[in-house]
Protein 1
Amino acid sequence: MKKKVFVFFPDGVGLRNFAFTEFKNIGEQKGFNITYWNNTVFSLKDNLDYNEVKIEDHTSHPLLSIYSRARKRAELNVSRDKFNDDVYPTYKFPFNYKGIKNSLKSLYTKYLIGLYSSEKGIVKLRQKINKLERSTTKYSYCKAQLEKHKPNLVFCTTQRATQSISALLAAKDLGIPTVAFVYSWDNVPKAMQVVETDYYCVWSDLMKEQVLQYYPFIKEKQVFVTGTPQFEPHYDIALKQTKEAFFNDYNLDINKKYICYSGDDETTSPLDQYYLEDLANAVRSLNVEGRNLGIIYRKCPVDFTPRYNAIIEANKDIIEVLDPIWKQVGKQWNQVLPTKEDFKMLYNVCEHSEFVTNVCSSTVFDFVAHNKPCIYYNYEQPQLKKGIRDIGQNYKYVHFRSMPSKNAAVFCEDKNHLKVLVRQILDGELSNVKDCEKWYEIVAGKTPTKSSENIWNVIKSLV
């Protein structure tokens, strides 16, 4: 009899990795009966004809957001003291004191942080969160669904969603094995391990080491290195278009060489539009010298701001906008959901651009999978003022310490150097690809084409 696996989507961020890749097909080929346990507004049944069980009760405990925020800050405080490292406070978002309600929430959160900022305190805080979530109607609702469908295992597609806590507790209380996938390359040091499951799948040896380092209550035998399905589409040559076909689809000039500008969200890079303007100025100057260059601007899918519009309009002879093919189904960042069609677009943007530029994005790895370089901007903009976050902070984060050398990316440290760097890359005199391939292996593991298969092999060993 086929083993039944619930692939659990607490929010939409896992869709890209686990609904639109070959993940499901590989699991079925290995003999699993796969049902998507769906807490999102995206219908997998209607859109993809997948078996799904919808979670309609989205109740969380009224105190969950307060306790979760306290848990995160307490963990960051412990990391700061344990590792004697001031990077951890920079992961914190400021408290909100606008209005009486927000002020009271912030004061109570600070009280909890003071009470629980120790390793033992964090365990108690997690136990308290679990107790709160077990008291919700969602917990009972999810427990009833599990009792009805009787899965042999629940695989949670992200470890960072508070919406998953009650559902996973219900599974654990019924004795159903639970596995969580650590979603992003920067999540572990940032205290984004919201859930506690029986097992964890991580990208790399580095990420496994971090999980054990930051969470002493997790044992080595609970963590499996699998890689991430995030980059698997870059090795699917069925997605590849000819340059002529791709340029024709998006009205690009076949005679131009294009540089991709990959936009960032407003939190990471609040002055991101000015780096796009700097690139446009560099391209315009090079074109005066006889080049024929253009820019493909691909925005961050969860950026709804109009901040780029004026710069795009002023440089419309140079900048072509290729928006990611994502669907907005709500106002929250995790309610902007990817589509399968976007894999093809991203593949061909990487394949047919000369290189990519951005602020500290993981698109460096998307492009290195196509042997394309990356420029990281690392200089202040003159528009920087008090209250606006400096992008230089990003490169000090723990996940950037995984770089085998600073040559793993081309860093532009001065606006006046950008034109020269662009020219050198175009002329083949400068590239980060060789060192970035080493970085890619450190971050994403040694088998980027086998990640889905590796995860199913872990699941098979557990059931």
Protein 2
Amino acid sequence: MRGGTVAVVGGSIAGCAFASAAVRAGAGEVVVLERTGGRLADRGVGLCVHDDRAAELVAAGALPPGIPAHRLERRRWVVRDASAGAGGRLIWEQPFPFHSYHWGLLWRGLREAVPGAVDYRQGVAVAGVEGAGDGVDVRFADGDTARFDLVVGADGYRSVVREAVSPGAAPDYAGYVCWRGNFDAGLLDGLEGAPSHPGSVTTVCFPGGSCVIYRIPGPAGPRVNWVLYAAPPAGGGLRFDDPTSFPPGALGEELSGHLRALLEREFPEYWGRALALTAPADTFVQPIYDLVTEPAATGRLLLAGDAASVVRPHNTSGAAKALQDATAFGAAWGRAGSWEELVAGYWAARGGAGRDLVALARRLGRAQVERTPQWAEMSAADVARWWEEQLAGAPGIGGQAMSS
């Protein structure tokens, strides 16, 4: 099947990957509709991709080579223990075969790889979409409409396209939040109390939460990225009826004070002081949601990435899943004789992956935030058994291998 018009709603990681896949598959016209008018590359959060998933995606052409990445090898789980020193006490260490990325640099690499034939439009807000028999009508916020043969919803966890695919589906609040931040890794040089492990991920464990800390590349050099999961304060101005986040620099004193108290009360001294190096402009808080959209594809509409399934970040699988979705889309296109066959083939390939990832992330969230064990009383063997119980037969985190 060749030719036709494809609209990709959303121009971030999933959107760029799907636009590239559509061109490679033979689409006649591909338009990306990105509501943000500014530079998406300014988003500085970190993410990780499992080495095996990266190898598969590079081979498939979905992950362009040359994007800056930082190699990670070990994950160290620590608890606060004054007798063990400022860095805390190591309770378990496990292999961690991942590479970390800066979101903006990863997006930039994917954006640069989008073929020039793609019409990538920024500052274009989509108000809704509607299947119309032989096409899909896209309604813009300014009142205009346009028709396409196929529409891909790659517009994230607050997807507009989702309502047309699965009416009423919306992410559910998980009951806790994550504070996120990053800072110049060079600041650690002046911080005494614990050795630096550039190739390690450190997970700080405490009652009612945990925090993951690792290095990522940055536009001006290496940075330290961290994600801290815990229940929010009773106040703080957070809303949980609609997925949202407090952008960097907009926490307010109540949320900022709650974070400071967590670091002082629960963290080993070194790691509390390390995270306190984060500037307010690089700190934000995000309520955690999840969602399995059933179905995530119908007619001539399909959902991709976070629009299709909202997975709690514990899985470390978001970017890999988005790129795998795009790879499966291209493969389904090659086998399809019609738009409807393409959409059905994509859903058959990716529906199960979304369900499995959400289920695993829920187990990990319960175990690492909602119902934390007595970390400080556990031996390394205890933690290893506990971890396998949460995996419940899954091979690990970082996403699944692509099916052939």
